Amino acid sequence: MNEIWQGLIKAVELIVSFDQEVMEIAGRSLVIAVTSLGLAALVCLPLGGLIHARQFRGKKTLVTLIQTLYSIPTVVIGLFVFLLLSRAGPLGGLNLLFTPTAMVIGQALLVAPILLGLTISALSGVDGLLPDTARSLGANGFQTSLVVLKEARFAVMAAVVLAFGRAISEVGVAIMVGGNILGYTRVMPTAISLETGKGDLALSMALGMILLFIALIINFGLNRIQQG
Questions:
Q1: Structural domains in the chain, sorted by start
Q2: Contacts for 101-104 with beta carbons within 8 Å, 24 or more apart?
């Protein structure tokens, strides 16, 4: 117990003193998570709106498949990206394996089903009369989509926050395609795993506290926006 208490005190000291290693790992984690989230959102939010708006054969099956992928193991995504970027893979010539770019690709694929499925669910919760009313007032397809998206904005924002939390706390993909290389691809979850195994509880606890702080700030901001 005394060892844990001392580790907690040291962890606070590392954070307060803006320890270079801690800040570097935390900053890299944020950059990779935000980039992967932005990449996934750029594709999944419009695609989710398109799937919701169109009626086609197999739509329910497609939505069920997307929702099933919510719980896909991270190591499966890691294995897929590893095979894709390895020297024997189709994109091996790009030399992206064990780079931050590979981690961004992996995390984007990991959070894509969450963004896509929850966007469809959010839009499905909008009153069906709203798009009809918008069209009757002269709105075109794009303007109608914007009206529906605005109505569902809080649910969509919650989906984005959930996807960000999945990305920044992810371990399996980060290790498999990033390699946990010090000063290059080491992020908070992989560093916590490594340092805990080495017995460096102070650094692990410092990074864990930063992760919790980031989650707190994001959820506080979301709640403030929703209340506004």
A1: 2-227 (1.10.3720.10)
A2: 102/177, 102/178, 103/32, 103/36, 103/173, 103/174, 103/177, 103/178, 103/185, 103/187, 104/32, 104/35, 104/36, 104/39
